[in-house]
């Protein structure tokens, strides 16, 4: 009996062992650019009932390896990447080891007919690139790229249009890797529709040499690449909007794109007196008067027309060209209240000004890229011309600490100017058989500006011994600024992952300022009497030679670069004032040091950068020529100045986990000024006239940081996003007032939070809050400290129900704690719009109301090292505007719906599981 039991046991054991025999499945996953896809999920499942058998994820190199038991029935294998898409393959059975080799996931080679719902990541991190899925961030109909960027976590945009992402400044904006009206991206920000954008990619900025050689970036700045939806790259798109509202406000926008293969042609045009292409929440809280950005100086009317062309003629040659015509007219009524700090007292000044400015501009640029075998040549020439006229009426008063009037100034001015600038960039890259390469770069800029102004001013002093100043003058200013930069280097590999570079850079800066002034002659009725007190000439010729050597290390997880050299300066400053020649020659040899190291391991990236920055004083800072352009603020150079010297350190960390859908970014910057050129100001407390020269100080520093956390969550058709961040800085600024050194210790904290809830395509609710606390502590001033707190709470809603009707609201509450008397501290701003699409989404009618509560204002406060400034500018008042948008798109030979309909269909397609045909 026991033998039979033992035999049965071994039979079962043998059967069990055979049934559990394992086979191995291996492979590697990359995207279309051959970048490995990290954390892509690999799943094997039963085809009959779709149950999962086993799964794994790809490693840092995109590779995977896992075991499954032998499958003698049909199974499927899915490789799912959060952003690129899905690879799917079926097997009748699996009885042997399988090596899939390299699997390339490219969304454009998959059949989109099979609809399988899939979660789409709003943001993923791949190596040193952050990719945002544009369809995951909702913006109102007809929104532009700028409005979309404002929704992305980590993005900040200031009044001048400068963009930072997680604390790093954006250095270029490209469309599908190509320039679009230049690399600054301002045209794209204001004109590119959000609904044709697929991805937004943020990566470390690379020079042309680094792109060609494959070197890692050594820059502390970032590059922004906008990827258009693939179905928008073959055919044409026409979008035109016209709007008219109360108080005769208007807007008109046109954008036409034509794509055929590698050929891209874009036409843009716009004209508006609301200085924007869309409403943005909380404009007044940041001191901007318009519905968009960069409008802090009053109300503007802007008109522009542009044409952009890019084409790849053959495998070797790529060409492009663009032209822009711009016209702007702005006017502003400004009031400014200034508290001036000094060791002895605090005195105040008030100023009212009324200004008008009109500018015409022409910009033409071309680009050529030629590649053959191991040679690449870039050539980018451009030319710009602008002409402007301006007028201003200004009156100001200065009061002592006791409140009595000490001086009063009234001035009217009218001027016109023309400016011409030619720029060219040439880059030559040559690789050799031994994997070494040679790089030559040149940047040349030749510019000239001619300005003519007529100024009539009266400066009155209440103290009798001081003479009043009366001026009726014609000022002619001709300036040139020519810059020539050349850099040649040779890089040689000394190991598989190490290289050395030897190079030399040469910079030549040639500038001139020729200011000639004539008094009005009552007898002749002409401006024919030379004013020697206001006539002066400056010129600077600076030669800079920088020989250097560089070591480069590039491993899979670790990269580093160390650069050592010298900056050899020769600067010849020359000036003429009151028939006397002034000259100053500076010869300096200073270190040129740079270094960076980066560690990349899976989702984690850590980098450290250092550079030593030096520069010489300008001619106006070293030549002892008296500049009395402003009778109340007089400047004079100091010939004994030392160069500026500063140490700069950047530390960056990022982590994004696809499994938990959460990310962390941190940025820390420290700048220590070994030597700084600062103002040395004396105040005449009888007249409150200020005379400023320059001095060197040691020890100015600034520590700044940025931290952000983002989390994504989805349940059914509900999508949630959380973005939390804080930026902070602390620094010391030193200067001189009344011959005594003062110190300002400034602190700024700005925490913020934004929540986002999407209920399918029907409703988006996004509340946000931002606190900004600033404090300045002073040493050797009458005042000990100044502080200010601002609060900004906002909530944005986008409702689309029924599907052809969209209702958008931007509501914000803004508070500023320490505005001066007469300045309103808080206000509500509510902008709302209603859009309806019809005729198969080819037409869209809408109405929008700006500042529904009629409370918006432009009051701002700025705390400087020597003053606190409260400012009020002109802003747009409440208005209602009606608009009509026309969409005509044809892609792939078929006419498609308008933008909103097309965006919805793309959003649905992006949630499909894509399979090979």
Automatic annotation (TrEMBL):
Region annotation (Disordered) ranges: 895-917
Keywords in alphabetical order: Signal
Domain of life according to the entry: Bacteria
A Pfam family of this chain: OMP_b-brl_3
Residues of the signal peptide: 1-19
Membrane-traversing stretches: none
Residue ranges constituting the Outer membrane protein beta-barrel domain according to the UniProt record: 431-886
This protein's name: Outer membrane protein beta-barrel family protein
Organism annotation: Algoriella xinjiangensis
Organism phylogeny: Bacteria, Pseudomonadati, Bacteroidota, Flavobacteriia, Flavobacteriales
């Amino acid at each position: 009996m026991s033998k039979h039991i033992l035999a049965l046991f071994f039979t079962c054991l043998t059967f069990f062992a055979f049934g559990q025999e394992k086979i191995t499945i291996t492979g590697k996953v990359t995207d279309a650019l051959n970048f490995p896809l990290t954390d892509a999920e690999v799943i094997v499942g039963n085809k009959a009932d779709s149950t999962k058998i086993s799964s794994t994820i790809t490693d840092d190199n995109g590779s995977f390896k896992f075991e499954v038991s032998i499958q003698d029935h049909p199974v499927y294998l899915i490789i799912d990447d959060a952003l690129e898409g899905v690879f799917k393959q079926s097997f009748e059975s699996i009885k042997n080891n399988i090596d899939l080799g390299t699997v390339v996931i490219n969304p454009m080679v998959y059949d989109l007919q099979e609809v399988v719902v899939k979660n789409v990541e709003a943001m993923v991190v791949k190596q040193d690139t952050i990719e945002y899925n544009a369809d995951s961030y909702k913006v109102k109909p007809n929104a532009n790229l700028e409005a979309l960027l404002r929704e992305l976590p980590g993005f900040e945009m200031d009044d001048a249009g400068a963009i930072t992402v997680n604390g790093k400044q954006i250095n270029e904006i490209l469309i599908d890797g190509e320039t679009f009206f230049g690399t600054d991206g301002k045209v794209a920000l204001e004109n590119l529709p959000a609904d044709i954008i697929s991805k937004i990619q943020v990566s470390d900025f690379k020079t042309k040499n680094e792109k060609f050689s494959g070197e890692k970036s050594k820059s502390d700045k970032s590059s922004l690449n906008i990827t258009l939806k693939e179905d928008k790259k073959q055919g044409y798109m026409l979008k035109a909007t016209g709007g008219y509202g109360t108080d005769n406000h208007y807007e008109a926008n046109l954008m036409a794109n034509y794509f055929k293969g590698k050929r891209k042609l874009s036409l843009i045009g716009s004209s508006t007196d609301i200085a924007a292409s869309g409403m943005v929440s909380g404009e007044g809280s940041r001191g901007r008067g318009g519905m968009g950005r960069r409008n802090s100086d009053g109300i503007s009317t802007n008109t522009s027309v542009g044409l952009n062309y890019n084409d790849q003629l053959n495998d070797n040659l790529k060409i492009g060209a663009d032209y822009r015509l711009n016209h702007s007219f702005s006017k502003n009524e400004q009031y400014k209240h200034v508290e001036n700090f000094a060791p002895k007292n605090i005195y105040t000044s008030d100023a009212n000004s009324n200004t008008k400015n009109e500018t015409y501009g022409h910009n033409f640029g071309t680009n050529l890229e030629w590649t053959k075998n191991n040679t690449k040549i870039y050539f980018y020439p451009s030319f710009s011309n602008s002409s402007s006229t301006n007028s201003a009426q200004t009156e100001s008063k200065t009061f002592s600490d006791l409140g009595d009037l000490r001086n009063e100034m009234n001035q009217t001015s009218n001027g016109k100017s023309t400016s011409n600038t030619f720029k060219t960039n040439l880059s030559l890259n040559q690789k050799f058989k031994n994997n070494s390469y040679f790089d030559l770069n040149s940047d040349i800029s030749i510019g000239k500006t001619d300005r003519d102004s007529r100024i009539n001013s009266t400066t009155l002093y209440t103290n009798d011994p001081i003479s009043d100043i009366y001026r009726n003058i014609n000022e002619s200013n001709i300036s040139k600024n020519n810059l020539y930069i050349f850099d040649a280097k040779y890089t040689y590999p000394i190991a598989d992952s190490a290289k050395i570079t030897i190079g030399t850079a040469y910079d030549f800066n040639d500038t001139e300022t020729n200011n000639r002034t004539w008094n009005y002659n009552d007898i002749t009725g002409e401006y024919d009497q030379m004013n020697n007190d206001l006539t002066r000439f400056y010129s600077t010729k600076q030669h800079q030679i920088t020989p250097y050597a560089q070591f480069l290390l590039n491993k899979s997880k670790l990269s580093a670069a160390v650069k050592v050299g010298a900056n050899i300066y020769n600067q010849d400053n020359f000036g003429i004032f009151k028939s006397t020649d002034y000259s100053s020659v500076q010869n300096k040899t200073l270190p040129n040091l740079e270094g960076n190291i980066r560690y990349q391991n899976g989702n984690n990236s850590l980098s450290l950068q250092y550079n030593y920055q030096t520069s010489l004083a300008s001619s106006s800072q070293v030549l002892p020529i008296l500049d009395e352009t402003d009778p109340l603020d007089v400047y004079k150079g100091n010939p004994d100045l030392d160069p500026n010297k500063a140490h700069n350190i950047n530390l960056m960390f990022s982590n994004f986990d696809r499994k938990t859908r959460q990310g962390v970014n941190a940025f820390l910057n420290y700048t220590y000024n070994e030597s700084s050129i600062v103002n040395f100001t004396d105040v005449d407390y009888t007249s409150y006239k200020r005379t400023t020269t320059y001095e060197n100080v040691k020890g100015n520093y600034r520590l700044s940081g940025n931290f952000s956390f983002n989390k994504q969550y989805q349940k059914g058709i509900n999508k949630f996003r959380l973005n939390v961040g804080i930026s902070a800085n602390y620094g010391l600024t030193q200067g001189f007032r009344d011959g005594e050194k003062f110190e300002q210790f400034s602190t700024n904290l700005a925490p913020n939070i934004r929540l986002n809830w999407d209920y399918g395509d029907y409703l988006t609710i996004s509340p946000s809050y931002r606190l900004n606390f600033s404090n300045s502590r002073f040493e050797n001033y009458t005042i000990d400290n100044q502080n200010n707190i601002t609060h900004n709470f906002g909530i944005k809603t986008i409702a689309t129900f029924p599907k052809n009707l969209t209702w958008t609201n931007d509501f914000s509450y803004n508070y500023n704690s320490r505005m001066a008397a007469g300045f309103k501290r808080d206000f509500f701003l509510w902008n709302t719009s209603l859009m309806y699409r019809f005729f198969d989404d080819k037409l869209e009618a809408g109405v929008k109301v700006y500042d529904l509560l009629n409370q918006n204002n432009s009051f701002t406060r700025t705390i400087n090292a020597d003053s606190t400034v409260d400012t009020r500018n002109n802003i747009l008042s409440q208005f209602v505007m009606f608009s009509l948008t026309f969409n005509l798109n044809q892609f792939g030979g078929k006419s498609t719906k308008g933008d909103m309909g097309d965006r919805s269909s793309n959003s649905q397609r992006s949630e499909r599981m894509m399979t090979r045909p």
